[in-house]
Amino acid sequence: MNHGEGWSSGGRWGPRGRSQGSWQRPNRPKSESPVMVDRSLDESSGNRGRRGFQGGGGRCRQSWSPRNNSPVQVYVKKSLQVSDVGKAAQQETKCQEDGRGSADEDAAFNCWGDNKDVLQPSALSSSKNINLSGGLSVSRESEDMNGGRMSYDLVNRMGDVSFSRQVSVSSSTSDKKVELSSIEEGDSAHKSGDVGNACNESISKPFDICLEKEGFCLKAGLKELNAEKRRATTKGCTGTVIRPGMILLKNFLSINDQVTIVKKCRELGLGKGGFYQPGYRDGASLHLKMMCLGKNWDPQTSRYGDTRPHDGSIPPNIPFEFNQFVQKAIKDSQSLVASSSNKTKPEDEIPCMSPDICIANFYTSTGKLGLHQDKDESAKSIQKGLPVVSFSIGDSAEFVYSDQRSDDNAEMVVLQSGDVLLFGGKSRKVFHGVRSILKDTAPKVLVQETDLRRPGRLNLTFRQY
Ligand SMILES: O=C(O)CCC(=O)C(=O)O
Ligand SMILES: [Fe+2]
Fold this sequence. Notes:
This protein is of the alpha+beta class and 465 residues long. It has helices at 85-97, 104-110, 222-235, 255-269, 320-340, 346-349, 379-383, 444-450, and strands spanning 35-37, 130-132, 139-143, 149-153, 163-165, 167-170, 177-180, 237-243, 246-250, 289-293, 296-298, 303-305, 357-363, 369-372, 388-394, 396-402, 411-415, 420-423, 431-438, 457-463.
């Protein structure tokens, strides 16, 4: 991957970076046609679509129902630890130096503090659905009220499937017509891209993506949490072809899957090769914490290697279960492509891929990542269009993408907890980034079950070198 693509020119975008200009108000997705997909590991199916972008075109997006979070409020301690005050002050100074706004969240982030006050009801995505016949046989697991797993079939069966779609628009880049939906983005008055703060030091203490329970914490009622969990699991997974080669699998990871992933990432993240504050070529830091699995990606050189230069650590292996989720997501995406177009070879659009790299990013509430291309993988991998598979967990994010480095015409989609996005084939080199993190949008039940009390978003991207 290459987080640096947009970065060097003009120093505006950090490789994972940031934008120079102000972000525009998020574009409203134009079309969607969601397809229900199987979320369980042992079965597959699904497809979906989303729009192509600007320039002539159409958007081809497919969507589904919004996630409905319950209005549970969870109070979590807001404080920086005393020992972190110095760091926070340093951070503030550095941030001021590079023109960033308030540094308190990053300071909290870097200094292990927690700045979450109240978890508000989520900003929800919504979309109008239209029915679409299709033939995916879908089943999935869900959790019962006690957290036990139960399997049941989802609606989509050959002949009696009900796929949702929306406004019809044709894409300039694809021969098929797709439907667009409106998704309400969270209220994200979003700031212009901040510039990476100049922190090229690495923190020696591993970063804990979760926080120990301490201080005052008013738990959401068990009943409400169970209700939220039930809603999440019965909503089903739907897929959208955003543009050729870019697939969004909404609600793909169940709450239980997300809990598993967070716990595993936390464990790995606290060990050798765990989460750290990456620097950047010129010393500008990325607004996130990073951990590499399988291979190390070095932001300084934009290269992959077997060890992490700053501490010599060897990246932990990619957990087996993670790989299973990835394989399932690829299969489901291929099914989606097959069912939503006449393409006989969906692998041309989303080729199969065996990840040997996973980059885990943790964004705090002020985290962001400028437009960049992932292009540090082998020439062969990129040329074949092997997809990057991206998991979103925790707070929602405004994910932007464009054919150009500039964010002026970038399209935006909100990625919520449990969503999986793939970009391969014709979209393998799409410019993309994270415009902002939508505060307090993580499922409450996830927060409670993982102690993911640090506000933010965990993102995992899987690639094959
Ligand atoms: O956080 C995301 O959704 C994107 C991450 C990304 O683009 C990257 O790690 O290269
Ligand atoms: Fe990327």
